[in-house]
Design brief:
By secondary structure, the protein is of the alpha/beta class. The protein is built from nine helices and eleven strands.
Length: 261
């Protein structure tokens, strides 16, 4: 099986269809609450600490942090659809979460302006080339204050490789059938996703990719960028008993910090 993927696949993938096909992961309030519990315990932040939810989508983690009393939370994501969805949710819930559209590799945000950067939900590794993924870490380092923390939520590489599934299928929204055909090349999973609606026919036929990083690889990259105190939590939000969630079945969290001068 040959799968061709655009380097910019992520620019169009995250839309209203995505919010239905991936709702079991990205619209699960209980799961989000558990993930934010971990963020709070891992970063140990004051409620006034400025936080950046990078590649934050519709801001499910940021909105939950705001709901819990964090007063300075920003979301940056490239998707107009997800940013607007988040803004509407913030307005509806009377939360002051700020939403910004931008590229995680070049955010245009002020240097040394955040006490924490979080990258949740497996939103790291969208580029085949290490250099492009590294740019996200470099940008995170730039916008963090000295002593500030970075929390990366990644697919668990070991689990993903050992339990690789070439094909998976599930239903969503009562009318959609989502089929994913995958190919593994080295440390990169390529996936062709088709979404068929029982009423409207084919809604999506797209290919995307995720580069997998193990502790040694991501730890080395973080240290090369300048981060210190790198630590890992494997089996983060392990959901293998509930079925095949692709790279979201079992994940690894990496925490590090920008050192003081």
């Amino acid at each position: 099986m040959t799968l061709q993927v655009s380097a910019d696949w992520w620019k169009e993938a995250f839309d209203d269809v995505y919010l239905v096909t991936d709702a079991r992961s990205v619209c699960d309030a209980d799961l989000t609450a558990k993930e934010v519990d971990f963020v709070e315990s891992a970063l140990n932040l004051d409620k006034s600490a400025p936080i950046l939810d990078l590649c934050g989508g519709q801001g499910r983690h940021a909105l939950e942090l705001s709901r819990r009393g964090f007063s300075s939370v920003k979301v940056l994501d490239y998707s107009d659809c997800l940013i607007e969805t988040g803004r509407l949710q913030a307005e509806k819930r009377n939360l002051n979460t700020e939403f910004i559209r931008g590229d995680a590799r070049d955010t245009d945000l002020a240097s040394r302006s955040f006490e924490a950067v979080i990258v949740m939900g497996g939103s790291f590794g969208y580029f085949v080339r290490d250099a492009e993924n590294r740019r996200i870490l470099e940008e995170s380092f730039r916008v963090l204050k000295p002593g500030g923390g970075l929390l990366l939520d990644l697919p668990d590489k070991g689990y993903a490789l050992e339990n690789f599934q070439a094909v998976s299928s599930h239903e969503a929204g009562g009318t959609l059938r989502i089929t994913r055909k995958r190919k593994l090349e080295g440390d990169v999973i390529y996936c062709r996703e088709t979404v068929i609606c029982s009423r409207k026919g084919c809604l999506r036929d797209k290919t995307y990719c995720v580069r997998l990083y193990g502790p040694e690889e991501i730890g080395g990259m973080l240290e090369d960028v300048g981060f210190v105190g790198v630590s890992f939590r494997e089996d983060f939000m392990d959901r293998r008993e509930k079925g095949d969630y692709g790279t979201m079945t079992n994940r690894m969290v990496v925490v590090s910090s920008r050192p003081f001068p």
